[in-house]
Amino acid sequence: MIASAEIGLVQDIHNNGILVKLDIFSLLSVFVLQISNDFACCLRSCRQFCSKLNGFYIMDKTDRKILAELQNNAAQPVADIARKVGLSVTPCWRRIQRMEEDGLIRKRVALLDPQKMGVGMSVFVAVRTDQHNADWLKKFADMVASMPEVVEFYRMSGEVDYLLRVVVPDMKAYDRFYQTLIANVELTDVSSSFAMEEIKYTTALPLPGSEDAN
């Protein structure tokens, strides 16, 4: 049984003996909110699809804020991140989960202090070789991958073929590393540059579009 009241703005609906009052404007608000949520989900899906096509991830302002917080301190609770970026906990958690699933967030790690760990000496090792075949490269890459002192390893353009960043306790430890390297792989030239002072070091990447968000 349905009885109209308040000139159509409120309807009294008897359902199993329970009286429920529904404001028409409230119903419309819920409907519009649902459409907005569906549109937002569709927009996020389109961004993800375009990201895969273009090879980079398309982020909105909130994504960038979340990533900035995670790059600063990945151990902080999601509730704290949500409060800082202006979201409730569940939507914030879903965004983080989505970025992890899409590979934008590779992993969460602890950053150790090299000095306190006893590996405060950084050495940049430039390698030249006249070997450029696949078998040699695999042997070289496998060798470098097995050496924990190497924390970065790049194939370069220009005069240097490969560049390594090595962390060791002291010169004696580096010499052991060097002797092991040249004994196991055929190299044309190896030159080492020792860092005298660390001016800047960060693992935080610049976030595209963050300048526009400020």
UniProtKB/TrEMBL annotation:
GO CC field: cytosol
Keywords, comma-separated and alphabetical: DNA-binding, Transcription, Transcription regulation, Transferase
Assigned EC number: 2.7.2.2
GO biological process, one term: regulation of DNA-templated transcription
Record carries keyword Glycosyltransferase: no
PROSITE patterns with a match to the protein in the record: HTH_ASNC_1, HTH_ASNC_2
Residue span(s) of domain HTH asnC-type: 59-120
GO MF assignments: carbamate kinase activity; sequence-specific DNA binding
CDD domains tied to this protein: HTH_ARSR
InterPro entries recorded: ArsR-like_HTH, AsnC-type_HTH_dom, Dimeric_a/b-barrel, Tscrpt_reg_AsnC-like, Tscrpt_reg_AsnC/Lrp_C, Tscrpt_reg_HTH_AsnC-type_CS, WH-like_DNA-bd_sf, WH_DNA-bd_sf
Leading EC class: transferase
Protein name: Putative transcription regulator protein
Organism: Puniceispirillum marinum (strain IMCC1322)
